[in-house]
Amino acid sequence: MALVATGSASENRLPARLDRCTVARVTNHLLAAYDDQLRTDAETPGAVSVARQGPLRLVTFPGGRGFITYRDLGGADAGALVPAALAHFQDDPAIGQVEWKTRGHDHAPGLHEALLANGFVPEEPESIMIGEAKLLALDLSLPEGVTLRQVTDEADVRAMLEMQHEVFGDPLTEDEVESLLRRVATDDELELWIAEAEGRVVSAGRLEPVRGTDFAGIWGGATRPEWRGRGIYRALTAERARSALRRGKTYINSDSTEYSRPILERSGLVKVSTTTPYEWRRDS
């Protein structure tokens, strides 16, 4: 059944101004929780395989995607780590691209240079946003004719992905559709949410509660350009936050673009660090 967010914004948010010491304490607490709870195998739901190589986790996802992450490099030599990790994926001809996920607060001397030297290309940095789920669970009004609902059927999932890829400007593959449908069928915590208007998907995003942690991630947020600035994304985020609370999660995390970051900040989330993905592609 479609849901329509109604009512006025909640007053359940952080004060507009906090002293610097309080901000620093909150940020440090949230960042520590992020590092301790999320920079583990919990970071890679839906993985086909996870291999360990020193401090690194080398993850293979469906669709020929590799992913490299870690909790702490522990002083390891980046100049040796990077080519060894890349070789792990190069040996698998099914892998077409690899992402190395870096964080701005890590001590990783030489990593940027080693990644560039091995063919990785940095993408735009994103803000790591964290806050209490209750701060996002606002009662918000939607534009007339716009409704929100959770989806699981193939036609809805495909329409959601097509809209997201259109907004992000990259092609959608059948592997991605099939992979997400498999996850929806086997993961009873993953939630896909869309906003619809005039029979079209105009905004969408995922909720991914992380087992064994206090966190639920909100990912894949996208809104068609002509529907932006009307509160749809914020309402979609609030609906996902309410669902996270029902599942017993207290924190929401998201890697946010400069479009979504201010929306989350207005709801009380805090920028605790940055993350920059470095991409390697076999055909390049």
Entry summary:
This protein is of the alpha+beta class. The protein has helices at 20-38, 78-90, 111-117, 133-136, 154-168, 174-186, 232-246, 261-266, and strands spanning 49-53, 56-61, 65-70, 97-103, 121-122, 126-132, 147-151, 191-197, 200-209, 215-223, 251-256, 270-281.
Explained architecture:
Strands 1, 2, 3, 4, 5, 6, 7, 8, 9, 10, 11 and 12 form a twelve-stranded mixed beta sheet that branches. β9 (200-209) and β10 form a beta hairpin. The protein has two domains: 43-122, no CATH class; 130-274, Aminopeptidase. It is an alpha+beta fold. The longest helix is centred in the first third of the chain and has 19 residues, at 20-38. It has helices at 20-38, 78-90, 111-117, 133-136, 154-168, 174-186, 232-246, 261-266, and strands at 49-53, 56-61, 65-70, 97-103, 121-122, 126-132, 147-151, 191-197, 200-209, 215-223, 251-256, 270-281.
CATH class of the largest domain: Alpha Beta
The CATH superfamily of the largest domain appears as: Gcn5-related N-acetyltransferase (GNAT)
N-end to C-end Cα span: 46 Å
Average pLDDT works out at 88
Unreliable stretches, pLDDT < 50, 5 or more residues?
1-16
**Which structural class is indicated by helix and strand composition?**
alpha+beta
Q: How would you describe this structure in keywords?
A:
284 residues; alpha+beta; Aminopeptidase; 2 domains; twelve-stranded mixed sheet; 32% helix; globular; disordered N terminus
